[in-house]
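Structure tokens please, single chain.
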Amino acid sequence: MRSAVRSWLKLPKDTSIAFLHARAVDGGLGLPLLEHEIPLMKRARTARMAMSPDPVVRAMLETPAARKVLRARQTSLNGTVVATRQGLRSLLAQQLYSSVDGRGLAPAPQVPAQHQWVTAGDMTLNGHAYVGAIKIRGNLVATALRSARGRPHTDIRCDCCGRPEALSHILQSCPRTHASRIARHDKIVDLVISSAEKIGYSICREPAIPTPAGIRKPDLILVRDCDLTILDVTIVADNADLEQSHQDKQVYYDVPAIREWAQRRYEPRHIAFEALAMSWRGLLASRSAAALRRLGLSARFISLASAMALECGTWIVNHFRRSTFTIRSR
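Here you go.
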């Protein structure tokens, strides 16, 4: 099974087993780990026979076959003993987050809705985009830094700026991909606009608001039923604190000058400051997801935003590989 999935998704041979078998809501692909799950399932089903109202069914627990299943109380994965399916899921998630490629997926369980696209089987992404999105999500794209594992003398420098060429560098900081990063941000903003307009919001995009600290331009102002929300989109590193990134955006825009400007222009009954903070792995801050749901946007929208950020990540990687732009040394 693992060999087939690696082939279909074009994953590298050193893809973590935990990434393949951890649940989608934990950041993995959710493939069943049959050699460990089947014994646990058999034991749980056999144990439930003891609660049957039928005395014949209860008597079956005294058979040698039933006693053998019940004695197999646990299984072992990489030296760690697990006794329940939930324990197995927790162990796989723990192993995923402790791996080099999986550590950035630790916030994954906080927003279950963002993983719907992984297992939905719908046309959220076409086949090519889905493969690319999975590789971005799992930090499985071939880069100079990843290819140098076990090769201590390999050059890992980016041919544009000389910094270590990791996937996070390509997606977040390399000067070569600056324009593509802006396009990724704008695609997420466009998605919010199109979805919000369908549910009745009036929208102002990137207004220039004067403040004592200078002009500030939030991405969106959304107005509906005398309620006004100022929303800003940010895509951060996978080791950033997503909740703090959300809060930082709120604090940056929630100042008296912006409140007064919004009150004069729209005369709203209520003003809220929110953010759509997510990592380049397509993981949203739980506070951002909650804010989107308060605005009336669906769980499917959250999944679509996650998938779109990852698809745009593949565009950024392709741009990086095609471009020959470099920074001239002085």
